[in-house]
Amino acid sequence: MSHPLRVHIETVSTLSDEEFDHILSFFVHKKMKKHSSLVTMGEQVKYEYFVIKGCLRAYMTDPETGKEFTYQFAVENWWISDREAFLRNLPATITIDCLEPCELLGITLQNRQKLGVEIWKYEHYLNVKANFGYVALQKRLQIMISGNAKQRYEQFINQYPQLLNRVPKQFVASYLGVSRETISRLYRG
């Protein structure tokens, strides 16, 4: 059985065994318990993470109200980090918590850049995946601006059916910018 990271990269570029072994050598393996924090707001972010197993939630907290706003979820074969903090060496502006026990691969910015220079297929993979990420973000912004609660919820379940039974409804509500009660009503409907 192929490694999940290799399978993911090979959706863009086929790798030799030697190339993949070299890529994997740049990553650190990390296991996290359910309810633990992978990234904490205000701290440095040393890694970008590829999810091998588990489910995570990235969120911002309003300093005045304490209200949480879910920014992103990540499950198997997705990437997660506070990207601005990671890329610019700034303190994190979000927190990332494990909603399930997680197994991750982390790569530092220095190793990511070095690997991109050494193996063009990896750099190409990152570019393709970043472009797909921008498209997904654009769609999310469009529906958040112009869609009603029902439209946002329907797009969420169509785009991310694998999250419905793994993410508590209050986090889905926070992600969609609606109340928990609205999600419950839509979930029943």
TrEMBL record:
InterPro entries, A to Z: cNMP-bd_dom (IPR000595), cNMP-bd_dom_sf (IPR018490), RmlC-like_jellyroll (IPR014710)
Protein name from the UniProt record: Crp/Fnr family transcriptional regulator
Positions of the Cyclic nucleotide-binding domain: 30-111
Superkingdom of the source species: Bacteria
